[in-house]
Design brief:
This protein is mostly helical and about 60 residues long. It has helices at about 5-20, 30-40, 40-50.
Length: about 60
């Protein structure tokens, strides 16, 4: 599943780095902390590797 926003892609990258031991898990907060705890390395890699070119900064809120 590709990331839906640049923010989600960046959070997945931070969580992936922590999961691999490249970054300290204590430095994570918010979405990246939850992702590191609940997602596998494979899932995080898939989200983090999404091409950012056409992604919005943040996902638009659904109204209706």
């Amino acid at each position: 599943m590709p990331a839906k926003s640049k923010a989600q892609q960046k959070a997945a990258g931070a969580a992936l780095a922590a999961k691999r031991g490249e970054a300290d898990k204590d430095d994570l907060f918010g979405a990246s902390k939850g992702m590191a705890e609940s997602m596998s390395e494979k899932e995080l890699k898939e989200l983090a590797s999404t091409e950012r070119k056409r992604l919005p900064e943040k996902k638009a809120d659904k109204k209706g």
